[in-house]
Amino acid sequence: MADVTTLRTAAETGLSKLFEVQRLKLPGAAIAREEAFRYFEAAGLPHRRVEAFKYTDLRAAVREAAPPAEVPDAETARNAVKTARGFAGIEAARLTFVNGHLVAALSDLSGLPEGLEVVTFAKAMAEGHPLLDHLAPVEQTRENPIYQLNAAFMADGAVIRVEAGAKIERALHLRFVGTGSAPFSTATRVLVVTGEESEVTILESHEGPDGIAYQPNDVLDVVIGDRARVLHSRLNIEGDAAIALSTVSARLGAGSHIETVNVVTGAVLSRHQLYLHFAGDDATATVNGAAMIRDGQLADSTLLADHAAVGGISREQFKTVIDGDATGVFQGKIIVRQIAQKTDGKMKSDCLLLTDEGQMMNKPELEIFADDVACGHGATCGAPDDDLLFYLMARGLPRPQAESLLVQAFLGEAIEVVTHEGARAAMIAETEAWLARRG
Predict the structure, then answer these.
(1) What whole-number distance in Å separates Cα of residue 273 and Cα of residue 252?
(2) Where are the beta strands (DSSP E) in 383-433?
(3) 114-163 per-position pLDDT tens digit
(4) 388: CB partners within 8 A, 6+ apart
(5) How far is the CA of 35 from the CAs of 32, 42, 101, 130, 164, in angstroms?
(6) Which H, E and C letters describe 333-379, residue by residue?
(7) What is this structure's pTM?
(8) Of the given ranges (54-68, 308-322, 383-397), which has the lowest mean pLDDT?
């Protein structure tokens, strides 16, 4: 039988060359990086024949491998941050990353409350920080090529530890800003480990220049202690030519809670992956998303909620607004292990089509091995309600304004769950700005 030769794209070949150059420059365990990249290399960029990427063909979308961004000089970093708007008006401790590298001079970590420790990821890797043992807290991420690509190239980020019993009232803002005149890539990793009965609020914002095909790939790993709470709000307002990949993986202890809400308006192609592992009994999760896309954009939200303990509760609600010929994707799976009796999981995806050219791909799934559960999923897709539009227009509102009010109400269901008042207001402001740009 003749040998089978796997054809590799220019981007895959380019990534192999970049890894050979970068692997000895990057801090941390070279063996772990090598293993991660070899996994990615064997799998290649995901394509339509890979079920999890059926609607998001990265092999076709990523034509070239953008080189890793260099550490920016002080002036470049300052200029990039001047116009950064994500969560800008919120009182918070800030870690500022420009082109994937921490810029201490533009960060504000003064007066961190007692019980909160922040170490740069580059330093943690160089020194072998003990918390790095908590990386990749959800097993399924290790079979994901995007996650493994991040593990191979991760250069900077943060390791955040919250002591047991600490209630961190001041939000921690992770501000990621890209800048440049040519394509570049970034691979950041943030690890959050919380002790028992602690609480912390994490804000993430991601933005960059228009017209540049840069390629961010960021990962947030979260390990939540028993009866601890993590509140996480994320804004994707990347540049209009970016290919933005992101992953949140969280392991929930007994009686713990995570709230994570992601709002998307940016990037020509974005894929946000969420992996939740309910490791302890009676853990709860609120996972919401709101995407507003137009003019050829593709926004993919992919979720896996793995209930592996008794009494877990998960609520997932995703809202997508599509204008022009954009494409929305929602893939969600709830797994209930045999041990996970009394699980309560609900998952919903709703789409509002503002034109006939847009399309929405919904793929909700349940995989249940326990017999005492209450689980369900649903998906809807349609145009704005004509009766509601008529009602508003009959009272003097022009059609664009009436349509905008309906869109805001539609998206509000996903955003209103955000506990942090400032983050919630900022996300609402982003929806209003998107509608204003639409006209």
Answers:
(1) 17
(2) none
(3) 899 999 999 999 999 999 999 999 999 999 999 999 999 999 999 999 99
(4) 406
(5) 5, 11, 24, 20, 33
(6) EEEECCCCCCCEEEEEEEEEECCCCCEEEEEEEEEECCCCCEEEEEE
(7) 0.96
(8) 383-397
